[in-house]
Amino acid sequence: MDTQEREGAVEPAGDVREPGRPPLWVEEPATRRRMPDPVRTAAVRAVLVLSVTMILAMVAFLTALAGSWLSFPMVLSGVASTVVATWAVLDVWVTRQVWNQRNGVVSEPSSSARRLRRERRRARREARAARRDAARTGHRGTDRLSRA
User: Is the whole-model pTM more than 0.70?
Assistant: First the structure.
């Protein structure tokens, strides 16, 4: 340690760069939204289970090549961990679907289904109004005729 470091005269290593040189990196906004917490938790769990499964498969393969007695138990555990890994991946998918169903439904006004429903409602309203008008005019006409 030299004397400058002991005395605390060393400059902080903040944004120290030569003038005219671009920065090492530029932070850009994220293009996709962050995954919801339950989905992210399930995904992390699935990645961990998958990595353990891959390690077990590699150990089973190498012990089988070596002809070790450990080969058979490792193959059995590899099969069991494959089932668990499949379950973990399905858990991510189901968690994502449930989260989208509960929290992620966003209605889009430009949706074609919504437009069709709106047109059908408008047609039904117009048909009801036309029936009402026909009933009114028909009823009044018969009323007048019967009174006359």
Answer: no
Structure tokens at 132: 């009402």
**How far is Cα 56 from Cα 79, in angstroms, rounded to an integer?**
9
The answer to whether the CB of 113 falls within 8 A of the CB of 81 is no
Whether the Cβ atoms of residue 81 and residue 73 lie closer than 8 Å to each other: no
What digits encode the pLDDT tens for the residues 62-99? 999 999 999 999 999 999 999 999 999 999 999 999 98
Packing angle of the helix pair 71-103, 37-66 (nearest 10 deg): 170
